[in-house]
Amino acid sequence: MIELRTPAEIERLRIAGEFVGSVLTATAAASAVGVNLLELDALAHDMIRARGAESCYIDYHPSFGGSPFGKVICTSVNDAALHGLPHDYRLRDGDVLSLDFAASVDGWVSDSAVTIIVGTPRPEDQRLIEVTSRALDAGIAAATVGNRIGDISAAIGDVAHAAGLKVNLDFGGHGVGTIMHGDPHIANDGRAGRGLPLRAGLVFAIEPWFMLGTKKLYTDEDGWTLRSSDGSRAAHFEHTVAVTDDGPVVLSAR
After folding, report:
1. Which of 31, 40, 101, 205 could be cross-linked to 111 through a Cys-Cys bond (beta carbons 3.0 to 4.6 Å apart)?
2. Which residues of 74-109 are buried (b: 16+ CB within 10 A; e: fewer)?
3. pTM listed for this prediction
């Protein structure tokens, strides 16, 4: 079901978004050579407890997950594109790390993601991150009253295609409110002028993610982590966004 949020509800979603943004800022800052992914998960968990928030991940068990997730943040490294399950791995120089985090604050949910390079960057990784971040900006800019969902998808896809990247359509953006994943689905490529008309009060997560060499994925033996089929590296950016009469508003700003 697609719901329109009141201005007061959007402000409550902004509070959740500010918390989610603060966790991503803290975990990104803590990500350094030698840091264990489990330490990043523990940091996020500590922040959830201190805030009195609730994790959207720890008990999450959708059809595509091998078991309840069991952790509170996704840590996807290098060829891991999405849903990286934190495990006993110490970050290495040059690793590409995507952090994806969602939480509920007083019953309202925000979802956001960021990709960073740990230590010494490779030019091709920097470019992939820059393109993915720019695709998020393009998608957000298209989230205006009078446009359609397809305009967001097309804006994201145009940035990817211009950079020579292939786009996977299995996972994309989604509605956010009192649950983490709701309607509508927002693909990372599509045709402008198609799909649901955008109205003030819609709130959703826009999340482009791309891989350098392929659009095909496989599931790691942990049952969760989605990796590129050719071993190429991936990047992932996401914000929770409200459609308003005054334009798109990023609720999970960092």
Report:
1. 205
2. bbbbbbbbbbbbbbeeebeeebbbbbbbbbbbeebb
3. 0.97
